[in-house]
Each structure stands twice: as C-alpha cells, then as structure tokens.
Amino acid sequence: MSIRIDRIVTRGGDGGQTSLGDGTRVSKSSDRIEAMGTVDELNAQLGVLCCYLTQDARIAGLVDEVRQIQSCLFDLGADLCLPDPDRVPSLSADAILWLEVRLEELRQSQQELRSFVLPGGSPVAAHAHLARTVARRAERRVAMLEQGPAETLRFLNRLSDYFFVLARHANNHGETDILWSPGRWHQKKI
User: Fold this and answer.
1) By the 8 A CB rule, do 59 and 124 touch?
2) Which helix (H) or strand (E) holds 3?
3) CATH (domain of 106)
4) 100: nearest Cα among 140, 143, 137, 155
5) Taking the model in full, what pTM does it have?
6) Inside any domain, residue 3
7) Strands 17-19 and 25-27, sheet pairing
8) Which of 66, 108, 134, 159 lies at a C-alpha separation of 20 to 30 Å from 101?
C-alpha cells in the first residue's frame, strides 16, 4: 500500500469538525473521534515504551513485538475511521490469537500472583502499566460506539492483559513487582 500525504495543515478542523475516512464530517467531540484519539494515544505510549525497551538488553528483543502491535493499532484506527458495518475489519481473529499465545508464553515464566500488583518497578514495567491503562480506556471508548467490529474490542481487551504480563516480565518475571499492601498507610508510625 502506498500512502501519500501532501499537506499537514489543512485548516479543515478549525471549526471543531474533522473528516472520517469516508469523507463524513463529524464533531471532534464525538464518541468515534474520542475512541480514535485514545487508540492514537495508546500507540504513542507504545512508542515511549519501545524507547525504554531498547535500553534494557534483557528484553530489547520485544521491541519488534511492540512495533507489530503498533501496526495493529493503525489497522484498528482504520476500522474506526471507516464505520461501515459491512466492511471487513482489518484486524482478524488471528491478531487476537497471536496476542493470547504471546501473553501466555510470557506468563509461563512468571511467579504466581499472590497479590495485586502496583504499577511500577522498572522503567519498562512502569510504561507497560501505563500502556495497559490507556488500552483499557481505549476499550471503554470503543465500547461506547453504536457499531464497531467485535474484533476491535476483543483485541483491546487482550492488549491490556498483554501489557500487564509484559510489565511483570520486565520486573524480572514478577520477582521485583511492587505488591499492594492493604492499609499500609495505617501501619506507618508518625
């Protein structure tokens, strides 16, 4: 596929509207544009995650995997941008299966969960947790749409699971996870 972008500044959105892929003009505050924007935000967060992945030799090999997910998010965005219910979705069940298999492969080497995990740990884990939360928000935004491919919701649901497992992987397979300690502030002596 060849894509050509002749202009960046179009002034078409100066009045608070933008165009969908089929040329339909919609408000920038519409649920569809909000969903598309949140998917775009998630993709940008993955770009940051890749920067941190490359700095950790133990897991730098995961950059290609995350870049593949970024391409899937562009496909997902195309589906959202062209809201034709009869259109064959860009993401297939194969993409969802790939995520399920991959997250299970990563999970196999991890310590068993015995508590809730607080977002954080290594820089990679912290950014993977942030990606997880943005993926959950994207899923909520897509769920608000009247029509959308079921694969889109399923992919985003699995994606948040993937980033949770990736965060644990980056925290030495869960060994250096930061675990929730209920009521911890009560235990501090002043």
Assistant:
1) yes
2) none
3) 1.20.1200.10
4) 155
5) 0.86
6) no
7) antiparallel
8) 134
